[in-house]
Amino acid sequence: MAALALVSASFTACDDDLDEYKVSGLSQSEMDLESSNSVAITTSNLYKVVLQMTFTADGHDLYITNDYNANTALGEGAYTLQVSTKSDFSENVLSSSLTNPIKGLNDITYTGQDLNILASSLGLQAGEIGTLYFRVAHSYTQDNVNGASFSSPIVVNVTPLFIDMSRASVLSKDQTEIVGTLYSPSSNGIYEGFIGTYGGWFNFWIQDGLNQAWGNYGQDGNFARADLSTNGAWNFWTAEPAGCIYLSLNTNSGSQYITYTNLASLSVSGDASGDLTFDAASLSWLGSFTTSSPDAKITLSGATLINDNGTGDATASARTGSMEFSANADGSLTLGGNSPIVVATPGTYKITVNLAAETYTYTLSSMGDVKIYPAQITAKAGDVEVTVASEVVDGLATGLYVGKIENATPGATLSFTDADGNDLGLSATLDNASTYSFTVNLALTSDQLTVTEIEYSVAETLGLYYDANYEWIQATMYSGYTDEGEFNGVYSGLFYKGADDWNFFAKDANGVYFGVNSTTWDQFSFLKDSKANFWVTATQATYLYSFDVNNASWSETAVEKIALTGDFTKGEGQDSWDLDEKFTDNGDGTWTLADVNLIDESWGPYLVLNGDWDLKLYIAADGKSLTTVNTGNFFATQGAGTYDITINALTNSVTITKK
Q1: Could you tell me the pTM of the whole model?
Q2: Which of 218, 228, 405, 649 is the most exposed place for a label (fewest CB within 10 A)?
Q3: Which residues contact 241 (CB under 8 A, 6 or more apart)?
Q4: Which secondary-structure segment (H or E) carries 237?
């Protein structure tokens, strides 16, 4: 284990000498000390305070009492803490600057882990008692202690604990499997490394050498603040987009943060050029390039998007940057710098950049006369265009491109160009304003283009999802019916808006994706095959949502009241078909109605929204979702009896409990 950045502390005045520097008077139980100057590091005290030191004149007051420079402005001086294994500080010394003194905050505090790292970095052996000497000096510049007056050193005997803190495991969101590894070569509590994600909003934990799972601090507004799961932390999550993510987690006291750097691209440049493709499974970038001269020099670099606690998890607010790799003679790569890879013989090469282990590597393989296809092509039809990536095998484009184009003008010509704008000489006429699928295969000698019009088939249900992976479902909406009894593509149900902006995605039961129009960004557009997220911005309230496939739109109606009506018993002389039996809005997306006396009839009760008989809700085929489709019964009772009913607008569902 190596040096942890020594814990910074603030001191009170700018004095030229210090009267005394000693261990403060914390109780033995608070400090877990064997005696006044001995500390044995154990697994039980790693995260407890084991040592605290202060400046004091008499052993009690936590400030410097010499008045020689009492009127000196704060910040003109600096304090330096030195730690050594030698009593005369002649060698093996670690220094830490303690600047910008603030009166009353002159403690230097070590947890067991802090002290363990410090002791190990100075060469003390695990399991053996060693001696550390501490002293402090005041100077007027942070980096110059010549002539400064040092305090008398104090002596602390430390028995370090051996823990392999050189790596940490990245765990799946349920902590059932290891999905990656981060490294801390100097075991300094800072873990770094790459992981590969397959979709946005990848969730995970990080487990250190103490088998403690680190997660995100469990409070909104702390996207990248790290905390232990035992303290109620949430799991970490990566921002969009998916791909190659470089994580940096600092677990040191006072610095518990994680940074996400998305390596969005990686390219070869210099005497050859080429874009590499990321393979998440092998945590590698693969591609090819061609050199034309001996000893060609190429470099590896890419663009990055950086998210941290300051940016939040939004891609739009991420800081842009770049990442470079330096090549070493042994085939390894170092993060940072631009030392080139030297390719001795001209030719076409496959390159693999492997980021899976602690040491990053690259390999080159000669490809002879293998043809190189574009990594992507652009399909255009009138004003509509889409970019489609090639199928990739072992990091190489195969020349096969499959995609869709929507809403083209009838009679438009579909054509294709490569990344440099060169026409590929392939075209077709699109007869209708419809969705078309196309396949381009440049590896064929003929029939390289096929185009097929897609006829959309309406599904029974539409799912609203938290994330672009379509994994965490929020609510299920059911389609209405045409007069012929077929699904009409109008999906309705309840939805509860939070106070903050909230994004969601949609996919129907046939696997068709829906999203907002990313050209106009009309919030209430609803387009097939568009994966740009929808969003809501209103204050907290329950809404009736309606998604209309036919008109490519969606709408919302604020729900102010919900009433139960239908066949159930009420007091004598009261009509159960009136709208007086109202649910209580709990203000959190749930509505409740207690002690309802249901009868076992074929026509059960249903819901009327806002006193409008045209806004009725029933229970859907799954027995829990709410729908505007008249299913005959609002719900199937468990026989006559007294029931409590809870409507959950967050999930568009109802729970009916017999008492």
Answers
A1: 0.51
A2: 218
A3: 200, 262, 264, 315
A4: strand 236-237
Report how far apart the first and last C-alpha atoms of the chain are (Å, whole number): 62
Q: Residue type at 42? A: T
pLDDT per position as a tens digit, 156-215: 899 998 878 889 999 998 888 899 999 999 888 899 999 999 866 789 999 988 778 999
Q: Would you say 545 and 495 are in contact if contact means Cβ atoms under 8 Å apart?
A: yes
d(CA 105, CA 13): 11
d(CA 499, CA 539): 4
| Euclidean distance between CA atoms 342 and 274, whole angstroms | 16
What is the block-wise mean pLDDT of the chain (659 residues), using blocks of 10 residues? 30 34 38 62 82 48 28 46 88 69 52 84 88 77 60 85 88 89 91 88 87 88 87 84 92 89 95 91 91 95 94 89 95 93 93 95 85 90 90 84 82 92 93 86 90 86 82 86 87 78 83 84 83 76 90 90 79 64 90 83 75 88 84 63 88 87
Q: What does 268-309 look like in DSSP terms, one character per residue?
A: EEESS-EE-EEETTTTEEEEEEEE-STTEEEEEEEEEEEE-T
What six digits make up the tokens of 310?
A: 């300051």
Distance (Å, whole) CA 586 – CA 241 = 36
DSSP-derived 3-state class of residue 36: coil
Tokens of 243: 């791909």
Token pair belonging to 630 = 């008249």
